Structures are given as structure tokens and as C-alpha cells.
Amino acid sequence: MNFELKKYLKDKKAKIEEFIKSYFQTFPTPPILHDSVLYSLTAGGKRLRPILCIASYEACDGMENIVPYATAIEFIHTYSLIHDDLPAMDNDDLRRGKPTNHKVFGEGIAILAGDGLLTEAFTILSNKDYANISSNTLLKVISEISKAAGLRGMVAGQAYDLISEGKEPDERVVEFIHLYKTAAMIKASVKVGAILAEASEEKIKNLEIYGQSIGLAFQIVDDILDIEGTTEAMGKPKGSDIEKGKMTYPRVFGIEKSKQKAKELIDKALESLTMFNHKAEPLREIAHYIIKRTS
Amino acid sequence: MNFELKKYLKDKKAKIEEFIKSYFQTFPTPPILHDSVLYSLTAGGKRLRPILCIASYEACDGMENIVPYATAIEFIHTYSLIHDDLPAMDNDDLRRGKPTNHKVFGEGIAILAGDGLLTEAFTILSNKDYANISSNTLLKVISEISKAAGLRGMVAGQAYDLISEGKEPDERVVEFIHLYKTAAMIKASVKVGAILAEASEEKIKNLEIYGQSIGLAFQIVDDILDIEGTTEAMGKPKGSDIEKGKMTYPRVFGIEKSKQKAKELIDKALESLTMFNHKAEPLREIAHYIIKRTS
Fold first, then answer.
1. Is A182 an interface residue toward B (CB < 8 Å)?
2. In this predicted structure, which of A56-60, A238-242, B11-15 has the lowest mean pLDDT?
3. Is B134 on the interface with A (CB under 8 A)?
4. Which end of chain A has the smaller Cβ count within 10 Å, N or C?
5. Which residue of A has its CA nearest to B122?
6. Is it the case that residue A237 has pLDDT exceeding 80?
7. Smallest CA–CA separation between B200 and chain A, in Å?
8. ipTM of the modeled complex
9. What would the pLDDT profile of B21-44 be if each residue is shown by its tens digit?
10. Looking at residues A43-58, what average pLDDT do you find?
11. What is the model's pLDDT at position B2?
């Protein structure tokens, strides 16, 4: 096996960031919104969701350049972080080692920047000029992403996350939060890659299992890092979940059982890739990386 | 001419509200989000934007039932009101005579309800099952609406509205705010009706002029009502624009010139409908109604 994940992630990240830069070069919006949106879009994210989308597309033999569509998912992820950090939500001052959007631009502009990024994602997804993808397929992608991001997906998870602060540990609640707040969009990122490649139903189904499993594992690892990670590596204060009384996996199941669960999920994700050939190697390596990450 | 606007508006409003009710009957979202979203969606709006969309579609000889797609525009309008009322934005306690969303459900849930409504609009617009409309046409509709609602449309207008509070009167700024904050989505509502009907380029162009003109007139009348209207009819405190130092049309041009401008815009809107037959009668009557309204 000669696949090097580090180089793969770096290459894809560069393409995504190049698209973001060119997209906003001559973009007709007020300067303050332009600055606010770009501030958060270029704050040094891992670009995990769009990379997963591209990796899944390539695993399904897709041959077009789908970077713009994948980057639309990063727009949605970034909007969710901006709104999540607001005083009325998690009230965080730091994100990836930098002041959060509302700390720099004020709450009103931060709300609007989030709204604008979410909306702009659909402008990108409805643009046929980026690649040779059928209108029907793009509609399916929009449906998938909007469901995963909205009232029956990420937004539902955020609502439960918010109203569960300080409540007694509850297995069903923490599982609901993880499934919707985090796993829904990670699963959709992977699935959308397969939809764009017009993959078979069977492949799509297996990639859904992969996406949901690594998505859940990702959030469990996040919860564990809040306890065992370093503030330096994470770019935000350690222990902030505990301070806010967040309903986390370690709080409900304990840290050892949480680690065990994350490992089981990664095994399940890898198993779901059995029917795929060497083109799914990035997806396999990303699954390993998710459990080993420190930030 | 036997066309009765009152009955027309009532009939269309009933269809839109029926769709809203059925849509959320068995909708999989947390109860608090469900309640928050429905609270604002059923707070007694005029449904002007979806009605304009349907009226435009019918003026262009459309024969399908496009109520679901038109209602998606109302979802976006409602999200914009929820976010606009937030303390970090206009900080309003009343809307249509009822406490604003965040006053009832809290700021966090209000932000999420707005996010969810915006996202759900695209779930509806990407659903092919509602009518016999081609995928390509639906993609065009999504592109049009997302541009009008986002960073180069309504969100841009909101940002300027926000940062212009308390500033010196400025003709260019107030025109920018009106054009983007209000007219962009009204114009898009009308244009989308024509796109759904696959109307000719010429018809679409004329309907764009109509939509932009009535959209600007609508906001000018809104500004005038803040001074001359009654708190009772409007369901919100009179004079609140002045109190907040908002950049309004009367503040920049004076009240008489504002009324004159609104009248000119309505004349322009009516003129743009010359090429349309009796099927455009609702659009003509709505133009007259916009300048005569008291709430």
C-alpha cells in the first residue's frame, strides 16, 4: 500500500481553498459581509466534509472536477460554526485559536454572514456550469444536503444540544445529538459524492453506513478531546463542554466506553467499504485518521 | 372587468396555509423547533410573495399546482423576519401584534428556527414530486431564489440596514437597502413564477421590471406607514424606524417625495404588464393594492 493520507489531504485542501479564494475575488456583496464570511471560511479548517465528498466521488469512479459542489458543503459547515459560537448558542470567544466571528464583526453581522453562507451554498449547488453533472442529479444533491443540514438534521441536533445543557446524562439524548448535530452532515457529505458519481444503490447504501459511522466516531473523539486534548492543539479552551454542562459521550458513558465505541464505529465504517477497490483507500485512511486525531 | 382582488388573495392564502399545515403535520423535528417554526409561519402574514409567484405563473399560462414551490419563498421570508427581529438585529418585541419568536422561544431557538426554515425551503424546491416541472427549471428557480436571498441580495440589504442605523441620510444607501433588503426577494418571487411556467425571455424581463418596481414601492410604503400608519393596523409600534435611526425613504427624501416615488414605481410596474392579457389582472390589482395598503 503506497497511499499517503497526508499528501492527499493537503492536495484536496489546496483545491478547496483555491476555489474559495477565487469565488470571493469579485463577489458583489458589502465589504463587511465579504470580510466576515472570508474570515470564517479561511480560519484554518480541516476541510473534512468536502474532502470526504470528493473521496467518495472518486471511490465511485467519478471523473469530473466536483470541487465547487464539495466546497458548498464547507460553506454550510462554516455557517453552522458561526451560528453555534453566538452568545445565544454556545457563547464561544475562540475557534481554531482565533476570536470567533461575532467577536470580530459583531453579533448582527455574524448572524447575517452565517445566513449568507448557508444560502450561497445553494447558489453553488444549483449552478450547472461547474461540471458535467445532470440537473436531476444536482437536485438530488440539494435535497440530500438540505435535509441533512436543516430541521430534520443538523439544526435539530443543535436544538437538542442547546436545550440539554445542564440536564441529567441521558443515553438517548446524547445519541440523538451526535447523530443529528454532527453525523448527519458528515454522512451527507459522503453520500453526495456517491450521488454525484451516479453510483449504484448498493454502493450508496454502504457509503451511508461509512459516513454515519465515522460521523458518530468524529463527535465522540471531539468529546474525548475536550477532556484529554490540549488547548494548544485544539485552538479552544479544554474542558469547555464540562463547564457548559454539555451532554457529551464521556459524560454519559465514561471515557473508556466512549473510546471503545469510537473504535467499534471505525471498524464498522471500514467493513462497509469491503465492496470498494483501491480507489476507496482515502476513505479507509480517513477513517483511521479520525480516531487518531488530536485536534 | 370582474376581477375581485380580495377573493383572489383569500383563496391563494388559504391554499398556501393549507400546504404549511399539512407539511408540518408529521414532520420529524424536535417539538420545540416544530412549535417555534409554526409559530412564525402561522402568525398571520399577507403571503404576498408566494401569491405574487403564483399570480406570475398564471399570467404566464402555467397550469400546474405550484403552491409548494411558492410556499418555499414564504419559508425564506419568515426566516428573514425571525432573524431580523433578534436583539442583535432590529431588537423588536412585537410582530403582527404578537411577541416575536425569540421573545417566546428564546434567542437560540429563534436563530435555529430561522436557519431551519431557510434550509427547508431548498428541500421543497428540490422535490420533483410536487408538480410536473423539469429538473432544469427547478435548478434555475433554486439559483434565482438563493441569489436573491443571500449575500448578493436580501442578506446584503440587511447588513447595510444594520450598519446604517444612526448615520446621516444618504440617497444611495437608502436605495441600496430598499433594492436588496426588500425588492430583491419580491422581484425573485415574481420572476420564479415566470421561470416555472417556462415563459419567454421577453415576458421574464417585463416581470422582473414589475417585481422590482412593486418591491421598491412596497418598502417605501412600509417606511411611510411607520410615520403615518396606526400601531393597531400594523401590529407593531409606530415610529420604531425613527427611534432606531433607520435609513428610511421619508427620512432621506421627505414624505411627499416618497409618496410621489411610490406612485411612479406602481405606474412603471403596470406599464411593464402591457404585453400580458387578462390573466395578469391579479398582478395589476396587486400593484394598486400595494400603494393603498394600511398594514
1. no
2. A238-242
3. yes
4. N
5. A146
6. no
7. 21
8. 0.97
9. 999 999 999 999 999 999 999 998
10. 96
11. 57
- Check CB contact of A167 with chain B, cutoff 8 Å: no
What is the distance in angstroms between the Cα of B248 and the nearest Cα belonging to chain A? Answer: 19
Check residues A88 and B1 and name the one with the higher pLDDT: A88
Partners of residue B37 in chain A, C-beta under 8 Å: 151
Give the burial class of B94: count Cβ atoms within 10 A of its Cβ; 0-12 exposed, 13-18 middle, 19 or more buried.
middle
Question: For A5-292, CATH number?
Answer: 1.10.600.10
Contacts of A27 in chain B (CB under 8 A): 151-152
Give A151-204 pLDDT, tens digit per residue.
999 999 999 999 999 899 899 999 999 999 999 999 999 999 999 999 999 999
Q: For residue B223, what pLDDT is reported?
A: 94
- Candidate from A28, A32, A143 with C-beta closest to B127: A143
**pLDDT score recorded for residue A233:** 76
Q: What is the mean pLDDT of residues B124-132?
A: 98
Q: Which residues contact B146 (CB under 8 A, 6 or more apart)?
A: A119, A120, A122, A123, A126, B122
Q: Do A127 and B115 touch (CB under 8 A)?
A: no
Partner residue facing A151 (CB), from B37, B162, B163: B37
The minimum CA-CA distance between B28 and chain A, rounded to whole Å, is: 6
The residue among A239 and B289 whose pLDDT is bigger is B289
Domain map of chain A by residue range?
A: 5-292
Regarding predicted confidence, which is higher, A113 or B235? A113
Q: Do B126 and A114 touch (CB under 8 A)?
A: no
A156 reaches B (C-beta below 8 A): yes
